[in-house]
Amino acid sequence: MSRPASLAPFALAFLTALAAPPLAAGDVLVTVKDARGASVADAVVSLVPLDAPATGLTPPAAPVVVAQDGQEFDPYVTAVVVGTRVNFPNRDKIRHQVYSLSKTKPFEIPLYGPGTEQSVTFDKAGVVALGCNIHDWMSAYIVVLATPHYRKTPADGLARIDGPPPGRYRLDVWHPRLAAETTREVTIAPGDPSPQTISVTLKADKRIRRAPDSAGGGYK
Fold first, then answer.
1. Which in 13, 27, 28, 126 has the greatest CB count within 10 A?
2. 107: domain CATH number?
3. pLDDT over 60 at 70, yes or no
């Protein structure tokens, strides 16, 4: 006798809860789903303190990497704190260029060859859209945050933010296809884990896909 199809989402949620490590005091687990209830990957979830300035906002000593690999940017979405240096290694066999027209960080890296890399420091909070003038389908985003409390969702849509100090926060969710601003106020109490579920409306995916015969194209 088969189980009713309507039980499947509840069974999946139960199994996911079993697989995830238990929440510690003050941890925030945010589940991001779309309007159909499907998990959303590449969403950036952040907590902005409302009662005091954010502390611990220290960029990493080593640069974050956004590679050019297979004529794509990898990863597609990267979240960093203000002041982070990002390296753009060219792992392809052709030359690449990187640019952004975003107000947060307009820049242009001229063509550079295979096996080399260039870097840019992102010193202002906001979203930076990346492109390559040579390969129009190449796109990516860098989300620069003025808070150390953030995570990017993997394929299961779960973002776990470990132990932000107790207090009031603005919980923001960003995604490349987000149809409307998604934010809410949350209060983190001492010793009380804070699971959150957020539903988002996503616009149609209009990314340009690489042409099948383009693997050997571009400037050598």
1. 28
2. 2.60.40.420
3. yes
What is the model's pLDDT at position 26?
66
Q: What is the 3-state secondary structure (H, E, C) of the chain?
A: CCCCHHHHHHHHHHHHHHHCCCCCCCCEEEEEEECCCCECCCCEEEEEECCCCCCCCCCCCCCEECEECCCCEECCEEEEECCEEEEEEECCCCCEEEEECCCCCCEEEEEECCCCEEEEEECCCEEEEEECCCCCCCEEEEEEECCCCEEECCCCCEEEECCCCCEEEEEEEECCCECCCEEEEEEECCCCCEEEEEEECECCCCCCCCCCCCCCCCCC
**CA distance from start to end of the chain:** 61
CATH number at residue 37: 2.60.40.10
- Supply the range of the domain harboring residue 158: 22-55+148-200
Q: Amino acid identity, residue 138?
A: M
Q: What is the rounded CA–CA span in Å between residue 120 and residue 111?
A: 15
Regarding whether 78 and 141 lie in a shared domain, the answer is: yes
**Tokens (6 digits) for 211:** 């042409």
Q: Is the pLDDT of residue 57 over 60?
A: yes
- Cβ neighbour number for residue 185 with a 10 Å cutoff: 9
- Tokens 């996911």 locate to 16
Amino acid at 32: V
**What is the reported pTM?**
0.85
Whether residue 20 is predicted with pLDDT greater than 70 in this model: the reply is no
Residues in the chain: 220
Nearest-angstrom CA–CA distance, 220 and 202 = 37
